[in-house]
Specification:
alpha+beta; Alpha-Beta Plaits; two-stranded antiparallel ribbon; 3 helices; 5 strands
Length: about 110
């Protein structure tokens, strides 16, 4: 009998969850969302990879490649804060859900001699 009041209250109120991704909520102010790299401005200094606490970023200076594993990224923003060229930034929205594991692999232009 103690729970009857709570049960009736929950039945009469609106749902506590949304049907994501059909119903999306506006992101909060200053949200740190999806990590993006403007590869044309990247100098492949590896500062982002060295400072990343999750170790989800790999940079190869010789091949001029930048890789990110978003499934282990904790979206802390340290990588974008230490980037000297500010080519790394975070969108104010989260990544779309995916059933398959995705990797972000970007290749820069060949180094000028």
């Amino acid at each position: 009998m103690k729970m009857l009041k709570t049960i009736l209250k929950n039945l009469a109120s609106r749902k506590a969850t949304r049907l994501y991704p059909k119903q999306k909520r506006e992101p909060f102010a200053n949200v740190r969302g999806e990590l993006v790299n403007d590869i044309d401005r990247c100098i492949f200094c590896s500062a982002c990879a060295l400072k990343c606490p999750a170790k989800c970023i790999k940079v190869d200076r010789e091949k001029r490649t930048w890789e990110n594993d978003p499934s282990i990224c904790i979206y802390c923003g340290i990588c974008s804060a230490v980037c000297p060229t500010k080519c790394l930034y975070q969108k104010p929205e989260y990544r779309a859900p995916s059933a398959a594991k995705e990797y972000i692999k970007l290749k820069g232009a060949p180094k000028k001699s």
